[in-house]
Amino acid sequence: MTGGDRGLTMHWNGKSWKRYDQFYDPSATKQYSLGLPSLRGNTVCILGERNGTSWILVGQRQ
Asked: Is 1:37 a contact under the CB 8 Å cutoff?
């Protein structure tokens, strides 16, 4: 799992990348921040903030 500008969040499954469009806003300005992913065991967590609203993305490897 990786994060980037404007909420870009992607996951590599070993064959291809999946982009999570619900977090990506190509027109966003600096009002959007995304933390680096944290991985522990099979759980990944990314923290973000947009226009004063915080969110947490938690995913599991299968």
From this structure: yes
Tens-place pLDDT, residues 41-56: 888 888 877 778 888 8
Say if residues 20 and 57 touch (Cβ distance below 8 Å). Answer: yes
What is the C-alpha separation between 45 and 39, in angstroms, rounded? Answer: 7
Provide the domain limits for residue 41.
2-60
| Alpha-carbon torsion (17, 21, 27, 30), positive or negative | negative
Query: Could you tell me which of 16, 28, 19 has the C-alpha nearest to residue 57?
Result: 19
Phi, then psi, of 16 in degrees rounded to 5: -155, 165
Entry pTM: 0.55
When divided into structural domains, the chain yields a total of 1
